[in-house]
Amino acid sequence: MAKVIIIGGGVAGMSAAHELIDRGYQVEILERSAEYVGGKARSVNVPGSNRIATDRYLPGEHGFRFFPGFYAHITDTMKRIPIGAGVSVMDNLISTQTVMISQAGHKPILVPVNFPRSLKDLKQLFQGFKDMSEELSDDDIAYFSGKVWRLMTSCQARFDQEYDAISWWDFTGAASRSAAYQKLLAGGLTRSLVACKAKTASTRTGGAIFLQLIYLMLDTSAQRTDRVLNAPTNEAWLTPWLQHLLDLGVTYRRGVTVTALQVDAGKVAGVTYRRAGSNDPELARADHYVLAVPVERAAALVNKDLLALDKSLGNIIKLAPNVEWMNGIQFFLNTELHMHLGHTIYADSNWALTSISQKQFWSNYELTDRGNGKVKSVLSVDISDWESPGDFNQKAARDCTADEIRDEVWAQLKAELNSRGRNTLRDEMLETWYLDSSIVPIDAVMTDPMLAGLTVGEQDKLQKVFNLEPLLVNQCNTWKIRPRANTGIPNLFLASDYVKTNTDLATMEGANEAARRAVNSILKATRNKAAPCQIWQLHTPWLLRLFRMVDFCQLMAANVWRDLRRSPRGVQP
Q1: Nearest-10 Cα torsion for 204, 540, 181, 392
Q2: Strands (E), 276-376
Q3: At what angle do helices 508-525 and 11-22 cross, to 10 degrees?
Q4: Residue 134's closest CA among 180, 187, 186?
Q5: Taking the CB of residue 249, how many other CB atoms lie within 10 A of it?
Q6: 267-275 and 282-284: which strand pairing?
Q7: pLDDT (tens place) for every residue of the chain, 573 residues total
């Protein structure tokens, strides 16, 4: 039985382990965290919130989870995690009902439910944004609709050949449009829905995912535009998943930090690691190795010996700086907060806030014996922009202390939710709060291996807080350097959201797809006859396929004409 060591026990690592153990491999996971599994997807025990019962904590998280309807890979895995007779983790998903785009002083945006069959229909879809700004004109709506229609009718080859080199900001022509256009349409939607900056994110990625979300919002037959878990992530998903993997025979080792990959005879010969609390290096060996850590961690493990065997691994180092911050803060309230049943996007927020009131989806989750016993609801908020000045303190989030981040986020939420005579949030409702533990004071992490090599000048540029777990953003012209799951080293494979996938976004869906591709590569390398992992394409509505076929023909004709003009003989009659 071939043994596989997986470096990293997040969603990618657990997904790879699940597929490998099902196909007869011996699997060992080496996970850096001593407390939690699941990487960024985890929920956590809020420190000190177990005063009533020692084993009952308030639930915090890196950021709220949601499962759009176009997710196919991760949900397929969830269907295979049993939690009872005939019941799986997939049954713990609940569909939300609405998405609200809020702005102070204006009513929320309403989205039509009919699928756009033409550019005229698409204009009607975005017409609701005019209710949120007097500055947004009919011409702005028409212009943006035209850009989105262009995306909807573009073939995949055009996404690969052209759109990867164009930022979303440039594609949407934002620089020459109104401030309202830039805030609500070109910038606001992408930074909140797709977690990327319009000026730097590739249209290939941002545009494709934006379309998937639009298709789902307009598909009333699907009833699965957006789904959330019916309890905190660990209880509803990760803990049952870990137990299932252990039952199948996976070895999951926590508190193990891999420091180097050893090379011998043209392949990986082992991994050096240290256990938590120890400085003594140890060595683990296997037949095959899967690197399933985030890009910035993977880059730190790409050494000269690996590069000598496969110089393309240097692209991981090139990709590592392409990360942004997107982290969560939870407000624990003493009042039941019955907002609409879904996510809220705050259009006026300089910090690009999105939120969801979670307890209304957790019908069987008890809060009364957690915290101080007064908590009745959990408002979970994601902060997607850590560099723009705050609406009230005029400071970037990364320049703020944890208390300053709390105060500014709370003030931004109140400004938008309490407008037009509403009194949704009041200061006396707030019992306690939790900021993602990945956001730490900079002085506390200067010994981290990621920061140890910084020069004094680079250290001076660091802000008050540091993010231990940033999010990969696919910037322009990076698709061509994104690696595939198989490498030039015969027993090393990659499974993380920076790998080339159909999903093409730093999400648990992308991580799961990358893991499946790594497993399929191992099957091929070992000549295993087991069925390969299934891989899905992004959804294309059938109404648009003819448009995309026409666009493909036009693109191919343009490419032929371009090549003819570039040939030494020129275009011949």
Answers
A1: -80
A2: 282-284, 288-291, 323-324, 327-333, 342-346, 353-357
A3: 40
A4: 180
A5: 11
A6: antiparallel
A7: 899 999 999 999 999 999 999 999 999 999 999 999 999 999 999 999 999 989 999 999 998 888 988 899 999 999 999 998 899 999 999 988 777 777 777 776 645 444 556 677 667 667 767 666 677 888 998 999 999 999 999 999 999 999 999 999 999 999 999 888 888 788 766 665 555 677 788 999 888 888 887 777 666 555 566 899 999 999 999 999 999 999 999 999 999 999 999 999 999 999 999 999 888 999 999 999 999 999 999 999 999 999 999 999 999 999 999 888 889 999 999 999 988 888 888 888 889 899 999 999 999 999 999 999 999 999 999 998 899 999 999 999 999 999 999 999 999 999 988 877 788 899 999 999 999 999 988 766 555 554 454 444 444 445 678 888 988 888 899 999 999 999 999 999 999 999 999 998 889 999 999 999 999 999 999 999 999 999 999 888 888 888 999 999 999 998 887 777 776 655 454
Instruction: At 464, list the tokens.
Output: 């008050």
Q: 119-126 and 138-152 helices cross at what angle (nearest 10)?
A: 130
What the block records as the tokens of 419 is 């407008």
In one letter, which amino acid is 197?
K
Counting beta carbons within 10 angstroms of the beta carbon of residue 81, is it exposed (0 to 12), middle (13 to 18) or buried (19 or more)?
A: buried
Q: Is 188 in contact with 345 (CB distance < 8 Å)?
A: yes
Give the DSSP letter string of 373-441: S---EEEEEEE--SSSPPTTT---GGGS-HHHHHHHHHHHHHHHHT-TT-----GGGEEEEEE-TTEEE
pTM of the model: 0.91
Return the exposure string of 156-168: e unless at least 16 CB atoms fall within 10 Å of the residue's CB, then b: bebbeeebbebbb
Q: Which residues contact 495 (CB under 8 A, 6 or more apart)?
A: 6, 8, 12, 13, 15, 16, 290, 291, 292, 485, 511, 514, 515, 517, 518, 519
Separation of alpha carbons 420 and 95, rounded Å: 29
| Residue found under tokens 């049954």 | 91
Say which residue the tokens 């699940």 belong to: 18
DSSP string, 436-502: -TTEEEGGGSTTSTTTTT--HHHHHT--SEEESS-EE--BTT-GGGPPPSB-SSTTEEE-STTS--S
Whats the size of the chain, residue-wise? 573
